[in-house]
Structures are given as C-alpha cells and as structure tokens.
Input
Amino acid sequence: MDATPLEALPEDETEDVADVPATAEIAPASAKHSRLPGTKVGRAIARIAARWVGLKSLRQVSRRVPDDCSGLVRLAYERGGLDPMGVDGLHGDNAVTTMWRRAFRLKALKRSGPRPGDLIFFRDTWDRNGDGQRNDGLTHVATVEKVDRDGTVTFIHRSGQGVNRMRMNLHHRHQRTLAGRTINDYLRRPDGTGGPRLTGELFAGYASVNAFARQTPRQARHGTQSR
Output
C-alpha cells in the first residue's frame, strides 16, 4: 500500500490514514523555511547521525537494523531515546511508510519549518515495484542536520553509496545549483523517463522530532498517541 501523500492530509490531520487517497502528487513545496531553533533532543539526534557520515555500511555500527535509509533513522532516533517505528505498520508497508503512518498518528507531519532531528520523507526515489512507473509511494527517509539562511536543508541519509549528506531547497525545488552552489542534489538515478530526480522535486513532507519526543516509553512501545 502506498503511503499517504502529504497534500491529501486534512488541515487538522484527524482523518484516519487508511482512508486518505494514496495517488496524489508530491506535496506542494513551501517557501516557509525560517531557521527555527532546534530542540535539545533534535540536535542530539542530528549529531548522532553525523557521526556515521562516511560509513559505507550500517553494519559497522549495528546488525540489528536494516542496512538502508530506514535503518539509519532508527539507529539515530533510538540512540536518542526515541522510537520512529512504533507498531503502526500495515501488511505490505515498507519501513518508510510505517514511519510516515506513525508520524501521521502523532500529528507530526508538516510541510515547512524543518529543524535538526526532524525526518524528511521522499517518494518515488526508485522504481520499487519494478513497473517502470512513478507510482511507488514513499521510498526514502532521512534526518535533518541543519537549515541555512536561504532555506537550504542539509540532511543525512543512507544511500547506495553509504551514509552521506545531501541538500534540498524548496524555494528552488527544480534547480540543482544557484550562484554556483548546489542547493538540490540528485536523489534518483536517470531512468530515461525525464521525470523528477532532485531532492526538492521528490520531497513528500517532514515529521517533527518533537512529536516523537513527547511519547512516553510505554506509548512508544504501543504506538499510541500522547494526550
């Protein structure tokens, strides 16, 4: 099952995730990227993820999680005392979609205002179902490290080349460079379709680290929302 597109979420985010259509396009880009101060836990998670930049494999850190983008997020969050997964996954979901559903239920999803430690979701970063179409739903997740004054977000992720940094700027989501500086990296390999490849083009939404931090250990284990 595809993940819930961000633009399909109701404003109060009270609709059940399973009832929201999964066929809408990538979330509209927002230019509201002020440099918001990070929280203590968010900055800690960003620092944890930054320690692993340059590693070719997460197996150098842990064999308990998958050696992929979701595994990096899980390791960074869990070492920061948070649970990004819960027990909200549905049959057929990938780990990225499970995190999205958990963020939805925690009212953590947002279109703008990224802070260190927040999650970034992307869709259609690769042809997951092998049908040659751009219909793969959520396929990638990363952690915000910092946000520059011009709105360029630096995030840390596990890619095919290992753990590394990439950039994204939703002010100029279709541009790779601006004034000689990279503001959107290529996140999808060329596939002959001419479809979107840049980080800003494949952006689906953010999830606030603060919402995960508000969970008590018991709520985190049971995937329930704090009240």
In short: The chain has a mean pLDDT of 81. The chain has six helices and eight strands. The longest helix spans residues 40-51.
